[in-house]
Fold this sequence. Notes:
By secondary structure, this protein is mainly alpha-helical. It contains 15 helices and no strands.
Amino acid sequence: MTEAALRPLPEGMERPGIARGLSSILAHRYLLTLLVRKELRVRYQASVLGLAWSYVKPGAQFAVFYFVMGGFLNLSRALPPFAIFLFSGIVIINLFTEILTNATRSIVQNGPLVRKIFLPRQLFPVSSVLVALVHFLPQLVILVIGALATGWRPDLVAVGAALLGILVTIALALGLGLIFAAVNVAFRDIENTVDLIAMVAVWFSPVLYSVSLVRDHFGPDSWLTHLYMANPLTIAVELFHRAFWYPAADVTLREEALVPDLMARGGIALAACLVLLVVGDRVFTRMSRKFAQEL
């Protein structure tokens, strides 16, 4: 390394071309805004419905699951109001899957930018989070309106559970997305792996059924039950159930249908996901040095 490269820079300046991780995002907020606008514009270019797809896709998903699970399997009677139980799980799962799948593809899809100029590579996965939140908010508004119609009245615990569930979901999806995005540059099979994760996520978390079915099937002390309960995605879905379904549910169903000590588990899940996010950021930063050559 030359003497000029080692020489300290004047105050307020930083050496270009150095990856600094997620901490560099705040200094590039304008670029992040441009990337989010670009992603939304490209996604809905020549689309008739445009952003209305944020309502159509979860609406169709909800209708199919409600008809099958609520009608055929009679869960609409076992977990009333089942529509709120189901939709609250769908909303948070969709947030997770959209962040994860888009973040995984973000570097490859923005290959021309990565090859031509230097900018913090973390901008691309983080922009996927913001795009997902743009789609998440209309679904959340519908969920709140539906919950209010069934007698839901927000309380501090419900609001805290909803915010905690969102934070757990974002930290988990972005942490995994950073790792998968970095590996996906060299091995494109990762995209198919993430698609599989997104497909099974709705079945391996209590979106369509209550956790009481898992306890009854494996036993309350089974290691499989404990493993299921330790899944941060299970906790995130249950936090949304606590926020929107629990206040309007029958008293006899409330405790049985939720994970015990939910708020404490939510705090532990958030801490674990933040650790994953730090690890993902470091893995991504280390591997990002070769992105331009490998793309």
